[in-house]
């Protein structure tokens, strides 16, 4: 077995025990990136010197007998929108191609504190807006399971690189599904935490009401280890929640499905769906039941209405953040990004504030209704077969809205609802490509998702599947 | 093309003409969604804080 085939948890344990060094792990990752990345375009920038220096520091620390963090020596890479003081951060854009921020994001600082090292910046949709993985400036990112097909976005490189074993895990961001979709299309675990669970300081913003920071990994435990490192109150981000952080890794190490009531989200999630995607969802439900979960039917209400309410938040907030550059550098935007921002200028202040004002009431009503009937809600992450890059290369043409709506239909409601969602691969594939479900819990219920997700992982063995590259 | 189109949202800026149609559809959907909520009125409601609401709904608070 190659070092790059290890899970994040195994890699960390191997460095801690001295079975191999952080430098050996890093060299293995760099060699694989060199061999495989040209097929995928997952990395927009590889920082060999930074990676090697980080690994050497971990090895020196271990040699000196100093305590190591829980992720010590593990090479990670991240969606290229996490600021590192003095380091390039392109945000997947032409406008920020040479941008070097003055601050380091709290998420990256906390991962570094846990001992993780940094391999480089990963491809993404321009300014994190787009669910397919296309990028006019850096080229499309490719799915390691079939390089003609999309990775999902906007955290396209995070999905592709982690699935292809170019890194052991990656941060993405999720405003309408941008962690869960690439996790789903690439056979990974992807967590969109509760809104405000993770600090967004030093992270490029798209929509401050809906943006979330979270990890994409090959296993549930790996995911829990990464979230554990980054979750919690941050004085630098006044919107971060001042709520206790449970022991996520302990939850993932204690798989539990027995007696857990799993509510099946139907209705909206089954409309306009490919039958094979729903069959994959059903295979996941069967696995959960086999592991001991109790299926229950729940009424999720009118989810289309929730998607309508989230539209002015995304569009108006993105338009606000990009207004200056739209005015000054319009031609430097990709066509779809520009078109979607322009929509934001058309919503009135009353439209926007109505959606904001209704949100707590709608979230409360949804949580009280759904989570009185079940402990965890199950919905498809997407209900279509994975399209090709060519099929979804729509730019700002007539059909682009339909493509976006269809791909992110099942994920977007949960950003408005603030809920944590863990995307996990289905046992059955969809036309030879990974299928995916999302498990959702009440706000700050991530530990319950990891515990159930670990039981599901043990039942299905999804991390054992690897793309042939 | 009208003067208004040339000057929105900035002087000398021209919207993609298709943006107007898309915005109208999204706006109509939103306004229907607001009207469909309760009696459709937000009168007598206080400024809402999503962070307070979700803290109250956390597992230790809600189950």
Q: Mind explaining what this structure looks like?
A:
The complex is a heterodimer of chains A (469) and B (63). By secondary structure, chain A is α/β, with parallel strands linked by helices. Chain A has one domain (3-464): Amidase signature (AS) enzymes (Alpha-Beta Complex), CATH 3.90.1300.10. Chain A has helices spanning 8-17, 22-40, 48-63, 106-113, 156-163, 180-185, 220-230, 248-252, 275-290, 303-328, 335-344, 349-373, 400-408, 413-416, 446-460, and strands at 43-46, 75-79, 117-122, 170-173, 189-192, 213-217, 261-264, 294-297, 376-380, 421-425, 436-440. Chain A has an 11-stranded mixed beta sheet with strand order 1-3-2-4-6-5-10-11-9-7-8, with helices on both faces. In chain A, helix 2 (22-40) packs antiparallel against helix 3 (48-63) and helix 7 (220-230) runs antiparallel to helix 15. The mean pLDDT of chain A is 96. Chain B is mainly α. Chain B has one domain (3-62). Helix content of chain B is 54%, strand content 0%. Chain B has helices spanning 3-6, 17-35, 50-56, 59-62. The longest helix of chain B has 19 residues, at 17-35. The model of chain B has no long low-confidence stretch (mean pLDDT 77). Classes of the chains: A alpha/beta (469), B mainly alpha (63). At the A-B interface, helix 10, helix 11 and helix 12 of A face helix 2 and helix 3 of B.
Uncertain stretches of 5 or more adjacent residues of chain B = none
Mean pLDDT of chain A: 96
Strand content of chain A: 5-15%
- Characterize the largest beta sheet of chain A: strand count, sense, and whether it forms a barrel: 11 strands, mixed
Structural class of chain B: mainly alpha
Number of strands of chain A: 11
Radius of gyration of chain B in whole Å, from Cα?
A: 20 Å
Largest sheet of chain B: none
- CATH homology superfamily of chain A: Amidase signature (AS) domain
Measured by residues with Cβ under 8 Å of the partner chain's Cβ, the largest interface is: A-B, 54 and 39 residues
- CATH architecture name of chain A: Alpha-Beta Complex
Share of helix of chain A, binned: 40-55%
């Amino acid at each position: 077995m190659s070092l790059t085939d290890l899970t994040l948890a195994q890699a960390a344990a191997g460095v801690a025990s001295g079975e191999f060094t952080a430098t050996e792990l890093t060299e293995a990752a760099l060699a694989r990136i060199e061999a495989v990345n040209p097929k995928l375009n997952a990395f927009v920038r590889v920082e060999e010197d930074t990676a090697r220096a980080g690994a050497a520091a971990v090895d020196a620390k271990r040699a000196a007998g100093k305590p190591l963090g829980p992720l010590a020596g593990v090479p990670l890479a991240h969606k290229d929108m996490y600021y590192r003081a003095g380091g390039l951060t392109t945000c997947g854009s032409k406008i920020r191609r040479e941008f070097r921020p003055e601050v380091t994001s709290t998420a990256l600082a906390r991962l570094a504190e846990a001992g993780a090292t940094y391999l480089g910046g990963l491809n993404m949709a321009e300014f994190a807006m787009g669910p397919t993985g296309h990028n006019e400036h850096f080229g499309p990112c490719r799915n390691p399971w079939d390089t003609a097909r999309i990775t999902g976005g906007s955290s396209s490189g995070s999905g592709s690189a982690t699935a292809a074993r170019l890194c052991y895990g990656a941060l993405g961001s999720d405003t309408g599904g941008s962690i869960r979709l690439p996790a789903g299309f690439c056979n990974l675990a992807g967590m969109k935490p509760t809104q405000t669970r993770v600090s967004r300081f030093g992270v490029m913003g798209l929509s401050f009401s809906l943006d979330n920071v979270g990890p994409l990994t090959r296993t549930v435990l790996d995911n829990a280890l990464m979230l554990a490192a980054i979750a919690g109150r941050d004085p630098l981000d006044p919107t971060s929640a001042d709520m206790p952080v449970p022991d996520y890794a302990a939850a993932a190490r204690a798989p539990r499905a027995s007696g857990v009531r799993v509510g099946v989200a139907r209705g909206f999630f089954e409309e306009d769906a490919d039958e094979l995607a729903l069959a994959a969802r059903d295979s996941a439900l069967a696995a959960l039941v086999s592991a001991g979960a109790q299926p229950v039917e729940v009424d999720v209400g009118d989810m289309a209405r929730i998607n309508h309410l989230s539209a002015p938040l995304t569009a108006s907030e993105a338009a606000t953040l990009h207004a200056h550059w739209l005015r000054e550098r319009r031609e430097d935007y990709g066509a779809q990004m520009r078109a979607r921002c322009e929509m934001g200028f058309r919503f009135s202040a009353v439209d926007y504030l109505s959606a904001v004002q209704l949100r707590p009431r709608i979230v409360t009503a949804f949580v009280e209704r759904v989570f009185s009937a079940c402990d965890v809600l199950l919905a498809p992450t997407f209900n279509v077969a994975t399209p090709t890059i060519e099929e979804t290369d729509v730019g700002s043409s007539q059909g682009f809205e339909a493509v976006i709506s269809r791909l992110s239909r099942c994920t977007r409601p949960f950003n408005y609802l603030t809920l944590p969602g863990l995307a996990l691969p289905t046992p059955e594939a969809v036309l030879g490509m990974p299928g995916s479900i999302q498990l959702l819990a009440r706000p700050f219920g991530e530990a319950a998702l990891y515990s159930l997700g670990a039981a599901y992982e043990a039942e299905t063995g999804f991390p054992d599947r690897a793309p042939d590259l | 093309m009208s003067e208004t189109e040339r000057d929105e949202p900035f002087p000398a800026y021209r919207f993609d003409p298709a943006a107007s149609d898309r915005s109208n559809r999204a706006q109509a959907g939103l306004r229907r969604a607001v009207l469909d909520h309760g009696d459709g009125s937000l009168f007598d409601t206080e400024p809402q804080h999503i962070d307070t609401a979700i803290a109250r709904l956390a597992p230790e608070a809600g189950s």
